[in-house]
Amino acid sequence: MSLEINNLTVGLYNLEHKQKSVNHIDVVDSFFLKVEEGEAVSIVGESGSGKSLLGLSILRLNPSGVSKIISGEIKIKCFSQKNEIDILKLKREDLADVRGRLVSMIFQDPNTSLNPVMRIGAQITEAILAHKKVSKKEAKDTAISYLNSMNIDGKSRFYSYPYEMSGGMRQRVMIAMAMVLNPCFLIADEPTTALDVTTSLQVLSLIEGIKEKSNVGVIFITHDLTVAKRISDRICVFYAGQVMELGKTEEVMDNPAHPYTLSLIRSVPYLDKGYKPKQRLFTIPGFLAEDDFYKGKCRFYSRCFKRADDCLNDISLTGLTGSKNRYVRCIKAG
Ligand SMILES: Nc1ncnc2c1ncn2[C@@H]1O[C@H](COP(=O)(O)OP(=O)(O)O)[C@@H](O)[C@H]1O
Ligand SMILES: [Mg+2]
Predict the structure, then answer these.
(1) Domain at 2-232: CATH code
(2) pTM, 2 dp
(3) Separation of CA 67 and ligand 1 centre (Å)
(4) Ligand 1 pocket by Cβ (under 6 Å)
């Protein structure tokens, strides 16, 4: 069972500061990742780096009109299939069979993802009945048991509207809905960002529990390195549409190779071993701008403390010498 993304490039066309020669930027540039069953990989990067468009593109849900998948392969193999499916080659009408059933997605904001005028039980059973030939009664029982597994009293909450629940409960309903068809892969796009710290911890443990019990592969999108460290087996550090570093969580955290990864780690209090409570916290200078996505230089160039003239070329992602399955996009790495 695996989900393999090769060379995925997604263009963004509604540019604000359009250079004369550029009609789009690669908001996801030649992205590679293979996720196995039971494995969690975090995509970590700051706001605006293209993480959500990457997640949406895996299910071809990226907004058309402003973005387009330019190239790539998204191959998926689940327990029930003999052959791999390439999601990008599927006909539109066959996509519904993949979405929710083979790969499902949890979004950042449950308020906009749930239908506000439909009871949550009906929303979950609708998903079951659309994919499975079961009776309404069976669908209802399944919905209730999935709600129960998310620590929600399924029987009494089946008839609740989303507005009758707290933010944390709504997010747990979203997870129940995402898991109800037993998908092989789960894409979670900042599922804890809209929640307070305690609720966010509950949601994280539920996702960890699902991963262990159902053996799903998880792509966990977050801007929060501490969350990524906790939940994932591997970390993929993402900046301006490109993978900057990829490797096992502890290797990346203990021994970051890319200056961007190092800067991210330094900007989190207590994560960096050298941090003392009264010390001023490190911040990365500048901000992520559209210019960073332009070709012909390292995308982190303008903010990097190690930049040099050699960085004014496109830099490729290469295996880190001496480490297996560790990749970095930096000529000054280490
Ligand atoms: N629906 C949309 N319409 C127009 N621009 C979008 C849309 N979604 C994302 N973008 C643009 O694409 C870039 C990447 O956005 P996004 O994938 O949401 O980043 P992230 O999830 O890392 O914060 C941003 O510049 C954002 O403004
Ligand atoms: Mg996002």
Answers:
(1) 3.40.50.300
(2) 0.94
(3) 9
(4) 12, 14, 27, 45, 47-53, 63, 66
